[in-house]
Amino acid sequence: MKARTMFRHFKDSMRSLSRNGWMTFASVSAVTVTLLLVGVFVLIMMNLNKVADDLENDVEMKVFISLATEQEQLGQIETTIGDLPGVDEVTFSTKEEELTDLILDFGDELSLFEQSNPLFDVFYVRATEPQQTEQVAAQIAELENVEDVKYGEGKIQRLFTVLNTGRNVGLVLILALLFTAMFLISNTIRITIVARRHEIEIMKLVGATNWFVRIPFILEGMWLGILGSIIPIASVTLLYYNIDNYLQPRLSGQIFELLPFTPLVYQVGGLILLMGVFIGIWGSFMSIRKFLRV
Q1: What is the pLDDT of residue 269?
Q2: 36: Cβ contacts below 8 Å, ≥ 6 apart
């Protein structure tokens, strides 16, 4: 297609937006409301997914070493644990360090045990994949000089089940919302095309090809998607900026934190824009098909 013809199609599509003002307003409003809901929900689900990842990554095993173990054997035990399949990180903590942590957490009364420390030397172990914690713990428990392995048996599996269920439910809801958005927006665009069906029929009768008729409407759908994305992008950015400023200082140092303001808002903003453009083009393309049969 010639550049001059394409430029004419661009001019026609923008002229059509202004000529059909109320229909344009209705379409842009539908795109705006739907994409705003999608954008807010995507923000929520991305942060919930971050919280789930933080909780999973915080899971670790506490390996208690037998009191009869010689200090010279600890290095070999650490190497053996680190070489097990599925082990990502091993950190050693002496029983003196464990007692110091207990005193900090529960008070100076426990300092009486400094004379005769009853605690175990321990290794803190993280699995490469949090879901492998149970299998890795079972392997470690079979090693020589290992007294016990604690990792929240039973509770960990329930946590993983809840987190995976939450992810799956969130994905289904997002897909359902996107499908609803495409349905609503395509129907709104179809109404604008129905109102101009005579214009399409005349173009076909004077010999215009299907693509010559189709392109201005596709471009118009693209403009509707872009215009309908502006308010959702601005609203989502402003909303998350205020939430981030309010919650980030209060969550600092906690188990989980919000995703940083950037690049999250750029990612979500880009996603909203792409969805708006895609839905606008797709809605126009699908809606105009039956009117090309003249």
Answers
A1: 92
A2: 231, 232, 235, 236
